[in-house]
Design brief:
Layout lengths: L10 E4 L7 H14 L8 E6 L5 H14 L3 E7 L2 H10 L4 E5 L8 E7 L8 H12 L15 E3 L3 H10 L12 E5 L8 H8 L3 E5 L18 H10 L3 E5 L6 E4 L5 E2 L1 H14 L7 E5 L4 H9 L3 E5 L3 H11 L3 E3 L5 E3 L8 H15 L3 H4 L8 E7 L8 H14 L3 E7 L5 E8 L2 H23 L1
Parallel strand pairs: 2-3, 2-4, 3-6, 7-8, 7-9, 12-13
Antiparallel strand pairs: 1-5, 4-5, 9-10, 10-11, 14-15, 16-18, 17-18
Length: 451
């Protein structure tokens, strides 16, 4: 049985349209609340959100659903996803909820759920919640004297600020560093500049004026031009760009040169290994990570373990086999000694610690390997096009052309109706030719299906 509502990272869609409606949020609150009511104690759910206008639609609907099944609700307001996971554990809550569509534009929204341990839910939990939603919720309503209550946690921001600062090595400070931090007009617009400033940095804040509709717009980790321009303009030592819910990041050095998640994992992994802090014999990443990372880690005596795309699969591998560092090329970095999910701010602090300890410019510290040529293109199409004979033939032809010198990776997006076509190899022109031939086949199949 497969999930219908939940994708690779919770439920996501256009706000006020199926499945991101107030009605579904209400039902989800009832079903998820009932799923996590275990025992006679007073049950608690914490709810955070990013800065999207539609948060005002989804938050009260979820709250009503939880209250109707007897759960007390603690409202956190705008706060990063990892802060919600942390506070779920800190408050001994039974469930945590983050309302966010991460890096998507403001028109979208999403709902991510965390169990009492602060980890994202298993497929089995999500299936059980979906089953409850589709099989009648009336029986879950409590009597009027057992309804839950809602209250706001006024110091949620301060709690997360202290948590993030405590991940930075004691004895180190950021004095003398000028840092551009682009908060994407999202969930970290208060906390990220504050943490860096309190640790001693001179902070140039960008994307810190959310208005409900400008989240991720021309800023943040998917639009890095703003960060790079500000770094050069202000003569900053480096730039940090977060996404809308601050669970991932990318950086740039003092010249405005981009640093992706693969370079960050290389730096943190090697740094942890030298300090004897790396657990396991390597780093966990996804099939999207560059082969250059794999070669660099091998040169350090470390291995790269690959999983399917999605930080939840990286985390599953980490938990199963005892690793404490993993992530994605896109900038989800999971530091299991600190967080139960990707945390862009905490990951940035580990990079900054290595930078401070080295005493060298960011351009010398953060570019540890030369990536192999890699090209990714997205095609708007349904997953069914991958079963079309012409598409299969194009993929096989691409794999044959790169055999022994590279690879082809085709996958459907878990959050949007997109087919992602990626190729990697030693020859730029060959990689581009392979990707273009497959994209053309997918586009032709998609237009044929629409006709």
């Amino acid at each position: 049985m497969s999930r219908k509502l939940f994708g690779t990272d919770g439920i996501r869609g256009t706000a006020n349209a199926d499945p991101m409606t107030a009605e579904i949020a209400l039902k989800l609150g009832m079903a998820a609340g009932r799923h996590f009511i275990r025992g006679a104690h007073r049950h608690i759910v914490v709810i955070g959100k990013d800065t999207r206008l539609s948060g005002y639609l989804i938050e009260p609907a979820l709250t009503a659903g939880f209250i109707s099944v007897g759960m007390d609700v603690v409202l956190l307001g705008p706060l990063p996803t990892p802060a919600v996971a942390m506070l779920t554990r800190s408050l001994r809550a039974d469930l945590g909820v983050m309302i966010s569509a991460s890096h998507n534009p403001f028109q979208d929204n999403g709902i991510k759920l965390f169990g009492p341990d602060g980890f994202k839910l298993s497929d089995e939990d999500e299936l059980s919640i979906e089953d409850k939603m589709s099989n009648g919720l009336e029986a879950y309503r409590v009597t009027s004297d057992r309804l839950g209550r809602a209250k706001r946690l006024d110091d949620a921001v301060g709690r997360y600020i202290e948590y993030a600062k405590n991940s930075f090595p004691r004895g180190l400070r950021l004095d003398g560093l000028k840092i551009v931090v682009d908060c994407a007009n999202g969930a970290a617009y208060k906390v990220a500049p504050t943490v860096l400033w309190e640790l001693g940095a001179e902070v140039v804040p960008v994307g810190v004026t959310p208005d409900g509709v400008n989240i991720n717009k021309n800023c943040g980790s998917l639009y890095t031009q703003t960060m790079r321009e500000q770094v050069v303009a202000h003569g900053a030592h480096l730039g940090v760009a977060l996404d809308g819910d601050a669970d991932r990041l990318v950086l740039c050095d003092e010249h405005g040169t981009m640093i992706d998640g693969d370079q960050l994992m290389a730096l943190i992994g090697a740094s942890f290994a030298r300090a004897g802090k790396l657990k396991g014999d390597g780093v966990v990443a996804t099939v999207m990570s560059n082969m250059g990372l794999e070669k660099y880690l091998a040169g350090q005596g470390l291995k790269l373990y690959r999983t399917g795309v999605g930080d939840r699969y990286v985390l599953e591998k980490m938990r199963k086999d005892g690793f404490n560092l993993g992530g994605e090329q896109s900038g989800h970095i999971i530091l299991a000694d600190h967080s139960t999910t990707g945390d862009g701010l905490v990951a940035a602090l580990q990079v900054l610690a290595a930078l401070v300890e080295s005493g060298k410019p960011a351009s010398e510290v953060l570019n540890l390997f030369t990536p192999m040529p890699q090209l990714l293109k997205n095609v708007r199409a349904q997953a069914s096009v991958l079963e079309v004979a012409a598409v299969k033939t194009a993929i096989k032809a691409g794999e044959d052309r790169l055999a022994g010198v590279g690879r082809v990776l085709i996958r459907k997006s878990g959050t949007e109706p997109l087919i992602r076509v990626m190729a990697e190899g030693e020859d730029d022109s060959l990689v581009a030719a392979v990707v273009d031939s497959i994209v053309a086949a997918v586009e032709a199949a998609a237009s044929g299906a629409a006709a």
